[in-house]
Every structure is written in structure tokens, then in C-alpha cells.
Amino acid sequence: MKRILPAIIALSIVFNGCAQYKRPPLLIKVPEYYQNYSQAEELSVAVEPYFKEEKAVYLFNNHPLKKGILPILLIAFNYGDHAYDMSKVTISIIRDDGFEYQPMVPKRVAREVLKNTPLRMIGWGFAGLIVLSIPLSMMAGIDSYRANKNTKDAVLNESMKVNRIDPKEVVDGFYFFRIADKSREVKEISQHQYQIKITGVVNQSTLKTYEFVLGLN
Fold it and tell me: What is the pTM of this model?
């Protein structure tokens, strides 16, 4: 019991003392910096796919692409004097054979990329019973829980939620696309060319609607 008590206390602190999400520093550069960007009037739109593991892990504490899910950062720069309505924006990835990918719901993304905390606790529990007793399994569960919480908070907080871009404003957020059912299928994406299509951006002064089609490299 003396061994178990500190682990129980630590576990209760972790589960009850959930810190608020704090975004890691994410440097937004000028539109021309990004390989994939387009401009209409004084509104520029850039997209950045998170193919590289180090970038995804830095922001999400995980690499969603291991589960076949590609995070794409969308950045909109409004250099004009008019606001743009983003409430009816649709975004999709179009493959060169015409297949179209739709964005995933962020809550589903968060569920699918999480580590399996119960299995980690059970696995370490067997080791703990043999070597260091039950607290080892609890600590493994704590580590897994923390990692899962960081990932879930990042996915939910970083997903695009903007409905309006005010004059002189820059906004950004992530969309998530399932591009493969299994991690090994991710390697096959290099066999195709992709574009990303953004529709439904409306100038609130002129009511003109814009569509952006960008390469995805």
C-alpha cells in the first residue's frame, strides 16, 4: 500500500489538474514564402501540408500521418479594407485521377491519433507485478494520458474555426484529411499529384465569391 499510494496521488493530480492548452510558437511568414499560395484582390491564401514528422510532432505531440491523416495548415492574409466571410467555406483535396478527399471532423481526428492508455497500463501492469509492482503501470498510464491530452488539445484548438477575416487580419488553422487507411499506404501518395480547392470565400462589401485552387507539394 505504501508503494501504491504515491502513484495514486500522482495519478489523481494529473487527471484533476488539467492545464489549459498553450500553443507552441508557430511562425507565420508572408504569403510568398509558402510554396502553395494564391491571391484574389487583397486576400492571399496559403496552405502548408504537414508531411514531415518533426513538424507534426512539434505541434501535435504526435504524427497523425502514421494513421493516414494529413494535417494541412491554411493561412489567410487580408491586406484590404473589406472583411471576408468564411462561414460557408468548403475545402477539399483533389487527386489527379479525380478522387476527392473531404476534411475530417476534429474530434474524430483526436480520437484516432491517440495512444491506447488502457493497453499501456495493462502491459506495464504485468511488468510491474513482476518487477516493481503496480505503480509502474500507473506511471505508464500517466505518461500516456499526458501525451493523449496534449495531442487532443492541440488537434481541437488548432483546427480552423474562423468565420470572418477582418481588414488587415491574418488567420490560420488546420484541416485534417484521411489520405490512407493504413500507415504503409501513405507511401503511395507520391504516385499522384494533388490540388487543394477552397470555395465559398465571400467579400462582405461586394458579395463576390472567390475560389482558390492551389498545388499541394
Answer: 0.77
